[in-house]
Design brief:
Blueprint (H helix, E strand, L loop, with lengths): L1 E5 L10 H15 L3 E6 L14 E5 L9 H13 L6 E5 L8 H4 L4 E5 L12 H14 L5 E4 L2 H11 L4 E2 L30 E4 L8 H8 L8 E4 L6 H12 L4 E5 L3 H10 L2 E4 L8 H8 L4 E4 L2 H7 L4 E3 L2 H13 L4 H17 L2 H14 L5
Parallel strand pairs: 1-2, 1-4, 2-3, 4-5, 5-6, 6-7, 8-9, 8-11, 9-10, 11-12, 12-13
Helix pairs in contact: 1-13, 6-7, 6-11, 9-12
Length: 372
């Protein structure tokens, strides 16, 4: 099949979960003999990094801005796709649902990954929440099929709109913890050593609650560094607040975004991983932490409960997270924590495989007739 991937910043991944999905999915589709085109945004990817054979990157323009970048880039990408005769299209984000019907006029089978319930995110003002609410309704009619990344999101569309969707989650590589990585090569402080730091990874936006994590940690004794890994292009006020919180505790390090092998090394060498997001579906960094055999501490949303399935510790607020962190930092030989680490890796291996994700998308497109 000739397949287009639209609605992300592009590849190689240099931002978030959809970009990681675009990379992992496109490389595997190309390995299986498909012709894959990934629509990209200039300045948002590693443009000088080569991509594998079978993958083409198309850079189309966009209007910068929190509310305009995604929809303008997607609109122009979809317009370009009309002249290229794709058999199938992966489209990301419910905000882009309004564009999903146009490729179908040329016979392209379009699957829309709606992501989480984006209108619940605190970063969006009224206009953004309205656009996402409208996008949910366009998702019911414009694409050939809806994809949810968790059963919780599938249930939301079924109960609210009476529309079913396919469930295809994210994948995660299985990472070995030995031999330990050389973290000094990442430019981190000398006290950041394998097995002796706590890791938080996410976009630095309010609903991902990095501030809650930092506040919880200030009541935890010990000298283990807390690494806050991530960035966000349109959250300057929130990031300024995080910098102020971090300045009050020398153990807290705001590293910025880290990708590629450096990110994987951080995952496989952490003492524990903290997932504090309160909105969304299956979070890629969470399943990646599981694949790295990390001890996972996750905010107790239905989506995080679904992904972990008991293979980690859940917290509900700042106080319960602080209690877990005191136990983790002070209990290196805790057998129950080690069982959680093993269970998380086993669940990632059994449930969150990129090869299985790729196969699921292939089957969905074929069921829609894309290979005809």
């Amino acid at each position: 099949m000739r397949i287009a991937i639209v609605g992300t910043r592009g590849i190689p991944a240099a931002y978030g979960g959809f970009e990681t999905l675009a990379w992992e999915l496109s490389t595997r589709l190309a390995e299986r003999g498909h012709e894959v085109t990934v629509y990209c945004r200039r300045g948002r990817t590693g443009e000088t990094v080569a991509v594998p054979p079978g993958i083409t990157r198309r850079f189309v323009p966009y209007l910068p801005g929190k509310y305009l970048e995604t929809v303008t880039h997607t609109a122009l990408s979809v317009f370009d796709s009309l002249f290229r005769g794709y058999d199938a299209m992966w489209l990301g984000n419910a905000a882009n649902a309004v564009f999903a019907g146009f490729p179908r006029l040329r016979g392209t089978r379009v699957v829309l990954n709606v992501d989480g319930i984006e209108r619940q995110r605190k970063k969006w003002r009224l206009a953004g929440r309205i656009w996402y609410a409208v996008g949910e309704r366009f998702a019911l009619v414009c694409p050939n099929a809806i994809v949810s990344d968790a059963d919780v999101i599938r249930a939301y569309y079924r109960e609210r709109y009476g529309r079913d969707s396919a469930v295809i989650a994210y994948g995660a590589p299985l990472l070995e913890r030995e031999p330990a990585p050389d973290l000094a090569a990442l430019g981190l402080d000398p006290d950041v050593k394998p097995g002796r730091y706590l890791l938080y990874v996410s976009r630095l936006e309010p609903e991902n609650q990095a501030d809650l994590v930092i506040r919880a940690y200030r009541d935890v004794p010990g000298d283990a560094p807390l690494l806050i890994v991530g960035d966000a292009p349109y959250a300057e006020a929130f990031k300024a607040g995080l910098r102020e919180l971090a300045a009050a505790d020398p153990r807290v390090r705001l590293t910025g975004a880290i990708y590629g092998q450096g990110y994987r090394d951080l995952q496989r060498a952490a003492m524990a991983y903290i997932q504090a997001t309160c909105v969304g579906g299956t979070h890629p960094a969470l399943v990646e932490a599981m694949g790295a055999g990390n001890l996972v501490l996750a905010f107790a949303t239905p989506e995080n409960r679904e992904v972990l399935a008991g293979a980690g510790l859940l917290f509900h607020d700042e106080a319960s997270l602080a209690a877990h962190l005191r136990r983790v930092v002070g209990g290196a030989d805790d057998a129950e924590l080690d069982r959680h680490r093993s269970a998380a890796r086993d669940r990632a291996a059994a449930t969150y495989s990129w090869d299985a994700v790729t196969t699921a998308y292939e089957r969905l497109w074929r069921a829609l007739g894309a290979d005809r």
